[in-house]
Amino acid sequence: MRWLVLLLALSPLPAQAAVLAAARTLPAGTVITAADLRAIDGDRPGLSDPSEAIGLQTRITIHEGRPLQASLLQAPKLISRNQMHPLVFQRGALRIVTTARTLSDGAAGDVIRVMNLESRATISAVVQPDGSLLAMK
């Protein structure tokens, strides 16, 4: 028993590293800014580099003081369900622009389903960084 106590006394304690935590309660859908972050010491896993979190959007509500983890964040949504957005169909030199109703949310680069309002056809489209939609081939 003495050797166990001695072993525990001599073993190094786990190093505490600074991790990022929420400086305030962040509702779901909040885009993270530098003012939303603070560094805390702790042994809980989490992001340590602010550039890994700034500009991303929260998936769920993150309460003040909770360490930020990559699984709690996502790319910001540019497209919301049931909105009207320009839909571009392009084949070679042919370019057709129409309006489509989005059937789901989407971030830049996501493939979402949209309804072409002219033909009422449902197609897949890629969300562009400017918020427009590019019909898939």
UniProtKB/TrEMBL annotation:
Pfam families given in the database record: ChapFlgA (PF13144)
One GO cellular component term noted in the UniProt record for this chain: periplasmic space
This protein's UniProt keywords: Bacterial flagellum biogenesis, Cell projection, Cilium, Flagellum, Periplasm, Signal
Compartment(s) of residence: Periplasm
Function according to Swiss-Prot or TrEMBL: Involved in the assembly process of the P-ring formation. It may associate with FlgF on the rod constituting a structure essential for the P-ring assembly or may act as a modulator protein for the P-ring assembly.
Transmembrane regions listed in the UniProt entry: none
Signal peptide (residue range): 1-17
Family: Belongs to the FlgA family.
Domain SAF, residue spans: 17-74
Chief subcellular location: periplasm
Record lineage: Bacteria, Pseudomonadati, Pseudomonadota, Alphaproteobacteria, Rhodobacterales
Name this protein carries in UniProt: Flagella basal body P-ring formation protein FlgA
GO biological process terms on file: bacterial-type flagellum assembly
InterPro entries: Flagellar_FlgA (IPR039246), SAF (IPR013974), SAF_FlgA (IPR017585)
